[in-house]
Design goal:
seven-stranded parallel sheet, 16% strand, Rossmann fold, 9 helices
């Protein structure tokens, strides 16, 4: 059987859907359950047959969960990908590309190739454990590439930025701290583009990718204004208010008001075209209609 370009696991995910625009038509897609005729239903990943990987040269694993108890996160985010990678290796697959997360770093303001990993959430710990176990499988004939991604924009109803935009359209003036906030993010399409390029590349080991343009509240406000015609802006919080929020709700304060930037030199997506603010504008238009 001739090799196909890729087998995408987690084929029901929005990320897998975006990959369809960047992978050859003969790429395969598989998921636990699916109603999509283009995607193979495989049931429990722990019981997958090695035949799934017959003729496959590269696997892109998009399967996993973002919330749950520690045991569920372990099963979905660590045990399943390690089992699937082991089967893939035994079947002669050459590359295993695995979607990971910036959550492995915990709360950090600057990310580069030397930034230590210190996850602070169960999700982050599960993603780091998966990276370590998968990389332990790597050989000269079996490349393992965990691709760490920041917050994904345009990923559906659970998209945190989309919910923030909906709130912004209601309140019109979003409170922000005096110190400018800069965040690395990535659109779902750019994330898929990176995964597709890594799948056909030569890298082995951890890859990190984010939109080459940083998110800022003022740039986002301008994009939303342009897309909706509404008077959208920011209001600067006094320092005492920012510090109070940090004490009362440190997690919320971190997600809203702490900068987190991937260094350009370590950004696999740095040469690619930015679409962050186009996606923000599109989300704003959708929320305006809704």
């Amino acid at each position: 059987m001739p090799s196909v370009s890729s087998l995408v696991l987690g084929g029901n995910s929005r990320l897998a859907g975006a990959l369809r625009r960047h992978l050859p038509d003969h790429a395969r897609y598989a998921a636990r359950e699916t109603t999509d005729p283009r995607c193979l239903a495989v049931g429990d990943y722990a019981k997958v047959s090695p035949a799934l990987f017959a003729g496959v040269s590269t696997v892109i694993n998009c399967a996993g969960i973002i919330a749950g108890d520690p045991a569920s996160l372990r099963r979905a985010n660590v045990d399943a990908p390690v089992h699937l990678a082991t089967l893939a290796q035994e079947a002669g697959v050459e590359r295993f590309v695995h979607v990971s997360s910036f959550s492995v770093f915990g709360r950090v303001r600057h990310i580069d190739a030397r930034t230590p990993v210190r996850p602070e959430s169960e999700y982050g710990r599960s993603k780091l454990a998966a990276e370590e176990a998968l990389l332990a499988l790597a050989t000269r004939d079996f490349a393992v590439v965990p691709v760490r991604l920041p917050a994904i924009v345009g990923g559906g109803e659970r998209d945190k930025l989309r919910r923030l935009i909906a709130l912004w359209l209601r309140v019109r003036r979003l409170p922000v701290p005096r110190t400018p906030v800069e965040r690395s993010m990535i659109s779902i399409d750019l994330a898929a583009q990176v995964l597709a390029e890594v799948a056909k590349g030569q890298e082995c080991g951890v890859v990190q990718a984010a939109d080459p343009i940083l998110f800022t509240y003022r740039e986002a406000a301008a994009a939303i204004r342009g897309a909706t015609g509404r008077s959208i802006g920011v209001v600067t919080l006094p320092d005492i208010a920012t510090r109070s929020l940090e004490r009362v709700a440190p997690g919320l304060a971190a997600s809203l008001y702490e900068s987190s930037v991937l260094a350009a030199a370590d950004n696999r997506a740095a040469p690619l075209a930015s679409d962050l603010y186009r996606v923000i504008a599109r989300l704003a238009q959708q929320e305006k209609v809704a």
